Amino acid sequence: MTRKFITGLQMHLILLAVCPEKTFDDVIVLSLLNELPEIFEQSLGEFSEENIKNNFVLLYQLVEELIDDGMIQVTDSVVLKKFINQSKETSNVVSSVLNTSVPWRTTGIVHRKNELFIDVIEKVDTLLSADGSVIQIQVGGSILLKSYLSGMPELQLVLAVSKHVTSPTMIKSNRPSKNTEMVVVNDISKINVLEDLRFHQCVRLNYFTTKKIISFIPPDGEFELLKYEINKCHVNSPLFSVVINIPEKHLDPEVATHTADSKQA
Questions:
Q1: Per-residue model confidence (pLDDT) at position 136
Q2: 140 and 215 within one domain
Q3: Which of 79, 215, 245, 262 is the most buried (most CB within 10 A)?
Q4: Is residue 208 part of a domain?
Q5: d(CA 12, CA 156)
Q6: What pLDDT is recorded for position 163?
Q7: What is the residue range of 187's domain?
């Protein structure tokens, strides 16, 4: 049988995958190799050569649950954690995961207090010319959730979009409540500034395509709901500038930073 080798470089470590030539899509294999370091970090800690050697048995067990008979099964770190060091309960966990339409969340989850935390993290990449003017600006963002909810809750997240800022406005649960309402500030379909949207597997993609609302049953614990990019940014000046002042008579240069005002930023 002819085999092909696919390699990926992650954090100075080479990851190698061997698969039949005509069975697997190369993009799927590369995507899995790119996700492995993050899955390992969330399940076992730092992704490093030393940590891999110290946790080789657990890592091998993790890969066995991740890939079964050459087929990718479960990639959610929250679920994979339940497989590690649970020899008596592993068969029950595997059965409950593979026989459900929501493999990233197990049944029977109970918390003493229902809580949900949302973090919106954005990174700005700016290219400046020699005179300090902006040539190109790009925003890369992600929405991180910490979910501590009992049962099997279905949540809906609506994005409120302004000219410069994209942020979630409100979370709605499928459980009826007098105080529950959903406010749509702006329709994301009318102001299409988000690009390259990458969702967690829990998101109902068809629902988002038609309703422009992110509907999902969250995993238990911490996870990344989505990643996005904003390339259509209208910023006249950089968010901050660096000024180097070199005196004529003394070799004592000064470096100062100046932030743009809130209107420009």
A1: 81
A2: yes
A3: 79
A4: yes
A5: 39
A6: 46
A7: 115-230
Q: Judge whether 86 lies within some domain.
A: yes
CA nearest to 151, candidates 91, 101, 53, 220: 220
Does the pTM of the predicted model rise above 0.70?
A: no
Residue whose tokens read 């000064």: 254
CB 95 within 8 A of CB 107: no
12 & 80 share domain: yes
Please name the amino acid found at residue 115: E
Give the number of other CB atoms < 10 A from CB of residue 198.
12
In a domain, 110, yes or no: no
- Quote the pLDDT of residue 49: 77
Residues 244 and 216 in one domain: no
**Cα 46 from chain centroid?**
17
Q: Which of 48, 68, 98 is the last residue of a domain?
A: 98
List, in sequence order, every residue forming a beta bridge with 245; answer none if it has no partner: 254
Rounded distance, CA 53 to CA 62, Å? 14
User: How many domains, in total, are found in the chain?
Assistant: 3
Task: List b or e across 116-141, with b for residues whose CB sees 16 or more CB atoms inside 10 angstroms.
Answer: eeeeeeeebeeeeeeeeebeebebeb
> Mean pLDDT per segment of 10 residues, for the chain of length 265 residues?
52 57 66 75 75 78 73 69 54 50 82 93 83 80 92 86 44 42 41 76 88 89 89 64 65 58 41
Q: Give the integer Cα–Cα distance in Å for 219 and 78.
A: 7
Name the nearest CA neighbour of 63 among 97, 122, 15, 127.
15
Residues 192 and 258 in one domain: no
Q: Does 105 fall in a domain?
A: no
